[in-house]
Amino acid sequence: MIAFGLVLLTLGLVLAEPASRVLAHAAWPQRSPGIALLLWQGMGLLAGLAFIGAGVILALAAPPVVAVVLWTLTGVLAARLLGVLTATGLRTLASRRRHRQLLDLIATPWPDRPGAAVLDHPMPVAYCLPGLRSRLVISRGVLDVLTPSQLDAVLAHERAHLAERHDLVVLPFVAWGATVPLPLRSWLPGVLRSQLAVAELIEMRADDVAVRQCGAQHLAAALRAVAGIGSYPPVETAGTIRDSTHFRAHRCGALPALRRLRRLAISSGSSSSHSAESGDTE
Amino acid sequence: MPGLGELERAIMEVLWRAGTPCTAKEVQDALVGRDARDLATTTVLTVLSRLERKALVARERNGRAHSYTAVATREDHIAELMNDALGTTPDRTAALARFLGGMGESERDATRRLLDP
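YS: structure for the whole thing
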């Protein structure tokens, strides 16, 4: 019994640290982001269940005093994981609803591309608002810098996020990233690592869908155009707090964009040499 | 019969343009003048209270009538949406997925250097 509990505990620790590092540094996920996403989800779920299972089994086997401690620890962990997931989910729904209400009031529906709306702002940004009543949004800045075929590639990318519900894929990783108390972050690097990896993989997955529909050249050109133009400091509003956390969030942007461009360069190279096979479905 | 969404847009437009508190009657008159639309005051009131529930409009008592003001300008709302979209709000949830992560000045320069050596 104790041995089984210890095996589960070890499994959890292995998944949290060495296994997540291996997966984060592997090269193959860039070629099959969909499979890598499934693996991250599986590993996350398994690690959580292993820790809770280990706590329960060890508590059952342990002497009474230790058992109380173990039950408490396990209970707190399980409650925190579920509670934070629920809280993050509800907060996300609320902020999405607010965003959608504002969009419907302010953005202009765009007749050329059904389902897309234009936001009157010079900074180039394209995004989707996921959910049952999803929205596709581009700023005027995007219209200024992209050609129509580049725009189609961007919209295909965003539609892939919506169709495959990437928001639901990301949600548990974001939520559970928040469960780790700050002082423990450096002890559990796997949590942050998985968050970054998943965020990047959904972009690559959406890139792949867009490439199949619109070709890699247009998507790569769009990425370059959006990366190179405009400035990204926080937009000034009353009540916006400007502090270093904004810029920490931004720092994740540059390198993944380069990796995405490199992938697109490879796939546009191979698609021009095997253009006859590019109609294959995966 | 225009949809509620379209009416909400039209009424916000009136309030933004006015800049001062307006009664439902004044909003109705402004709409008739501009769109030649025949709207009942109750319809205007319904839409105004919907907008109030969405925290887009504030209501205050003004003698016997209520008057309504837009809580923020159109530009403020656009800025709010852009901050959400760029992830520049402190409370960053997984609400949105944007095409390219926002970048700071130095990151953008670094990217550009790597792209065009």
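YS: worth flagging: The two ends of chain A are 45 Å apart (CA to CA).
IM: good catch. Also Chain A touches chain B through 66 residues (CB under 8 Å).
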